[in-house]
Structures are given as C-alpha cells and as structure tokens.
C-alpha cells in the first residue's frame, strides 16, 4: 500500500512538472504547436489505431506520416486507410487549433469523417451508416452494454459539450477532470456505428490543447487498465480511476529530459 501511494505521489509531481514545461513553451500559433508536438503525433496515431486494429504497426504509421505511403505492404488495405485517415485527422486538428475552432457536435462529425472514411464495411453501409454521421441503429459495447439510443445521441452529446464548457474556473485540475469526464461520457454515449474510441481519444486531446494542456498518448499495451477505468465510469460513474490512469499515461508520454528542461526555464 505504501509503495502504491508513493508511486502515485511521484506521478502527480511529474505531472505538475510536465504541465509547467508545456506552459513555459508559451504556444501562440500552430507552427509552435507543431514544434512542441514533434514525434507525438505519430505516437498518438499508432497507439490509438492499434488499440482497435492489431495489424497497425509503428513502421507503417511512420512511413505514411513521413512519406504518405508504404512499400511492400501485403495486408488488409483497410489498415492503410485507417493510418492515412489518422494523418488527415491530425491535420484537421492542427487547422482547427489555428482557427480556434470550438469543440462542437459539427466539429466532432468532421473528425469522425476524417478518421473513418473508406473504412465502413458493407454491412454497416447497407443499413445506412456513414462516416461523418451519427449512428442510425442501436449498438452497444462492453460487458455492461453501454451506448445511447440513436435518437438520443445528438441531445446527449450536445448536453455533454455544454457541461464541459460551463466550467468557468479553469484550474489545471478542473481542466484535467473535465477532459477525463468528456472522454468517459463520450465513450458511454457511443455516438457512432464505428470509430468511437479513435474519435473519443482525439476529441479529448483537442479539448486539452484548447486549454493549454499537453495531450495524452493512451498506450496500446495499457489497454486492459484503460478499459477497466472506462468501465468504472460506466458502472458507478466514478471518474477517479480514469483520471489516475490518464495522468500516468501523460507522464509516460512526456517524461523526456529534452521536453522537461522547459520546466526549469524562467519566463
């Protein structure tokens, strides 16, 4: 028990150091954001994609992001589409950051279209499901079969976004709690026929970026704890397990000497 508390304390201290380093970067435009995210975008795309598709590799992700193609690929072409879509969605986020686009249902639909275009299977297509559109049929996920009814999705998503925008006291902790809640509730609503996890992770990170907070890579090797943390919200509406998990993932993402040196620069 003592070791667990100590480990959590170290994680919290490192979180504060990472947050200070990010704030000291004083990001004012998209060029400075791209510089700060150097290497991060590929890591996020790889881990977020592999969470849903085990055929995604880091090599292929890097090749598509750097060269817009992969040589000698022999797998399912859907994998290539998913990686290419992740690149397009990343560019959409950067453009939205530059334009100071608000997090709205319309923007989330844009993200969903970019992430899922050319990947919907014939079965979904035949029943009217489309990239960039809310689900038309009832899909549930997980042990506890969560997921809003199709007719309730738009209202529940709009209410969720209103909730996170209402908090006028933007302390660091409030921002992080709001981000965790946004992600948990988004996955609980399950607004799309496919791509909910990929969209939800990107939506959470766009919210963080808009609030001058570093984004998070949720590492695919940590998926078991990730799903358990989401399940805690589904069952008991407890956000604390997901917050602890996300802070640990944030530390795992940004605990690099080259980045952390910014925490010790006077501004």
Automatic annotation (TrEMBL):
Q: By its UniProt entry, which Pfam families does this protein fall under?
A: Fic (PF02661)
Residues in the signal sequence: none
Fido domain boundaries: 103-248
Q: Where is the active site?
A: 190
GO molecular function terms here? Answer: ATP binding
Residues at site: Important for autoinhibition of adenylyltransferase activity? 52
Question: Where along this sequence does the record place binding of ATP?
Answer: 194-201, 226-227
| Entries under PROSITE patterns matching the protein | FIDO
Identification of the protein by name: Fic family protein
Q: Report the source organism.
A: Selenomonas sputigena (strain ATCC 35185 / DSM 20758 / CCUG 44933 / VPI D19B-28)
Taxonomy-wise, where does this protein's organism fall, top ranks first?
Bacteria, Bacillati, Bacillota, Negativicutes, Selenomonadales
